[in-house]
Design a protein that fits this description.
The chain is mostly helical. It has 10 helices and no strands.
Length: 196
């Protein structure tokens, strides 16, 4: 699709959003939710990150202004998520390294992080789509390891299987994902994430 047509489609979507179109809102929600959730999980546990996103998307639905472009909308969403995460951390009086990073993040640093995080979020979304296609047991193991940060022993205990079975399932999952992701750099990242 030519760039002009893409820009026209984006302008139409933003116009419809500003007019209160539920379909436009749902399209934007589907486009940005996973990436924003991944971003929020850099600062908060999954449940709190999901709660923050629910609040941010309610604010978007209630927003009475308009956005000049999709990148402007995306930046607004990310700033809203970042600020909501900061509010949660402040309310809980958590003086963690993550809070320190949020408090001292400069605008210049934020722009750099914005593009890096967008790439990471896109990669994360792609990986998640493929993980959901795995055998259910492999899917659970990979999600527990990759998304919840559990180690092999913790996964084995939770699923009541041996640590070796966890390792075997991770290796099998990686072989399946390797067939899909053929880029050597991406495979290196996947191998590191799944096998460490």
């Amino acid at each position: 699709m030519p760039t002009g047509e893409l820009q026209d489609d984006e302008k139409m979507l933003l116009t419809e959003l500003a007019a209160g179109s539920r379909a436009a809102f749902e399209e934007i929600y589907q486009e940005y939710y996973n990436g924003l959730l991944f971003f929020a999980q850099r600062f908060l546990p999954l449940q709190q990150a999901e709660d923050v996103l629910a609040e941010v998307f309610i604010k978007l639905w209630q927003f009475t202004g308009s956005f000049s472009s999709m990148p402007a909308l995306h930046k607004w969403l990310r700033v809203a998520v970042r600020n909501a995460c900061l509010n949660v951390l402040t309310q809980e009086k958590r003086h963690t390294e993550k809070q320190h990073r949020l408090l001292h993040e400069t605008e210049a640093g934020y722009e750099h992080l914005y593009f890096r995080d967008k790439l990471e979020a896109d990669l994360q979304a792609l990986i998640l789509r493929e993980i959901h296609k795995l055998h259910p047991q492999q899917q659970r193991i990979v999600q527990m390891f990759f998304l919840q940060g559990m180690d092999n022993a913790g996964i084995a205990a939770a699923l009541q299987i041996s640590v070796q079975a966890v390792k075997n399932q991770k290796v099998t999952a990686l072989k399946t994902l390797r067939k899909i992701f053929r880029d050597p750099d991406l495979l290196l990242v996947l191998s590191f994430l799944l096998l460490t």
